[in-house]
Amino acid sequence: MALAIGLLLGIALMIFLAWKGWNVLILAPVAAIVIALTNHMPVAKAMLGSGKTYFGGLGGFLVSYMIIFLLGSLLGKYMEDSKATITIANSIFKLTGKNDPYKVLLAIALIGAALTYGGVTMFIFIFAVVALGKPIFKELNLPWRLVLLPMFFGGCTITMSVLPATPSIQNVVPTALGTPLTSAPLVSLIACVVVVAWGLWYMKWQLNKAVKAGEEYVEIGQEIKIDYKPEELPSLLASVLPLLVVVGIIVYGSIVKMNNVAIIALLAGVIVSAALYWKYIPNQLATLNVGATNAVMPLIFTAAATGVGSVVTAAPGFTYLMNLMSGVPGGVMTQAVAVTAFLSCASGSAAGALGIIVPQFGPQWIAAGANPELLHRVMAITSAAWSAMPHAGFVFSCIAVFGLKHKQVYKDMFALGFCGANMALITVLALAAIFY
Questions:
Q1: Mean of pLDDT values over 396-417
Q2: 3-state SS of the chain?
Q3: What is the average pLDDT score of the chain?
Q4: In this structure, are residues 145 and 407 in contact, taking their beta carbons and an 8 Å threshold?
C-alpha cells in the first residue's frame, strides 16, 4: 500500500509542477525519480538502460512513432506554406460568415476537424489556429482565451480517437493488436454524435458567459497579419486533395488489411502536396526542413511522458494497483479502461500510455475474450480522455503557442477533452452490450 501511495505521489507531483509552469522535459524525469525512490527502486536502474526504464520508454517511443510525427508535421507545413489552410478556412467562413461570434467558433472547429482528420497533427494545427484566429478575434473583440474552445473541440475530440479512420497517433498505436484504423465503426460514429452535441452546447455556453461578463480582446504575444492575393491561393480542390488522399488510403487500406497504412497514407499525402503546391512554394527544401524540425518537440514531449509510464509499470506499487484494477467489476473491458485511464493520467500522454499498454496487456485481454476492434476503440478513447491532464505535453504546447496560462484555459480543455471523450467512452461501452 505504501508503495502505491509513493507512485501516486509522483503522479501528483507531475500535475502540481505542470500547473506551476514547469517544462515537461524537466518535470517528467523528476517525477520518475520520485516514483523510483518511493518504490525502493535503484534510481540509476530505473532511469537508464533499455526495457522498463525512463530512457528505455522514451527511446522506444521515439523509434516506434517518429515517422508518424514526421510525416504529419511535413503535411501540415505543406498545407501552411502553400496557404491551402487559408483556402480551406475561407471556404468554411463563406458558409458561416465572420460576423456571428458563435459561427466563427464553429468555423474554426470545422477547420480543425478537416485538417486533423486529414492527417495534420494537432501540434501543427495549433499554429494554423493562431494565424487564422487572431485577426478575427480582434475584429470581433472576443477574448483570446476562447480560441481554445474550437481548437480543442475541432482538433482534439472526435478526430483524435473517436472517428473511424483517423490517422492520429492515438488511433494508430492500437493497430498493433492486428486491428484496422476503422475499428468498431458503428459504435464509434454514434459516439461521435454525442461528443459533437456536447461540444456545440459547451462552446455556446462559454461564449455567452464571456459576452455577458463583458470580456474583451487583449493582444497577447505577436500580432498576426495575413497578407495574400487571391491568385496566390491554391483552389479548394487542390487544398483538400492531400487530405482526401490520406483518408481514402486509410479507409481502403483498412478494408484490405494493409500493413502500416497510416504511414503509407501520410507519405502519399506529403507526396501529393509536393506535386500540387510546387508553384505556391518557391523553396520546398525550406518547407521540408522546417516541417521536420517542427516534429521534434511534440515527439520529445510525448516520449518524455512515455518514459514516466515505463517507470510506473516497473514500480512495485503498480503491481498492487493492477491487482486492485483486476478486481474491478465488469470483466476484461472494464479492466482495460481502468489500466488505460491510470497510465494515461500518470504519463499525461495518450500515445505514450498506449505505447506501453497495447503490447504488454492487449494480447492477454484478447486472449481473455475481449473483442479486438472494440478493445482498440475503447483504449483509444480512454487514453485520449484521461491524458487531458495539466501535465500533458500537448497542453504545454497549447498554452505556449497561444500565450495563455493553465488557469485561463485548462477548465475548457478538461470539459471538452476529458468530459467529452468520457461521454464517448460511456456511449461505446453501453452500445457494446448490444453490438458485441
A1: 83
A2: CHHHHHHHHHHHHHHHHHHCCCCHHHHHHHHHHHHHHHCCCCHHHHHCCCCCCHHHHHHHHHHHHHHHHHHHHHHHHHHHHCCHHHHHHHHHHHHHCCCCHHHHHHHHHHHHHHHHHCCCCHHHHHHHHHHHHHHHHHHHCCCHHHHHHHHHHHHCCHHHHHCCCCCCHHHHHHHHHCCCCCCCHHHHHHHHHHHHHHHHHHHHHHHHHHHHCCCCCCCCCCCCCCCCCHHHCCCHHHHHHHHHHHHHHHHHHHHCCCCCHHHHHHHHHHHHHHHHCCCCCCCHHHHHHHHHHHCHHHHHHHHHHHHHHHHHHHCHHHHHHHHHHHCCCCCHHHHHHHHHHHHHHHHCCHHHHHHHHHHHHHHHHHHCCCCHHHHHHHHHHHHHHHCCCCCCHHHHHHHHHHCCCHHHHHHHHHHHHHHHHHHHHHHHHHHHHHHC
A3: 87
A4: no
Interatomic CA distance for residues 402 and 137, integer angstroms = 13
* Cβ-based neighbour number of residue 400 at 10 Å: 13
Distance CA 351, CA 32 (A): 18
Alpha-carbon dihedral angle through residues 138, 81, 123, 264, given to the nearest 10 degrees? 150
Highest mean pLDDT among 82-86, 106-110, 216-220: 106-110
Digit-coded pLDDT (tens) for 307-366: 888 888 888 888 888 777 766 777 889 989 999 998 888 777 788 789 888 988 899 999
Q: Domain-by-domain residue ranges, the chain?
A: 2-213+226-435
How many percent of the chain have pLDDT more than 70? Answer: 96
Q: Can you give the pTM of this predicted structure? A: 0.81
Report CA 201 to chain centroid distance, whole Å: 22
* Of 69, 77, 109, 81, residue with least CA distance to 93: 109
Give the model confidence (pLDDT) of 202-237 as tens digits: 999 999 999 999 999 887 755 555 566 777 789 999
Yes or no: say if 169 and 181 are a contact pair by the CB < 8 Å rule.
Answer: no
pLDDT for position 102:
94
Q: How many residues are there in the chain?
A: 436
Residues 6+ apart with CB under 8 A from 323: none
- Measure the CA–CA gap between 197 and 309, rounded to whole angstroms: 33
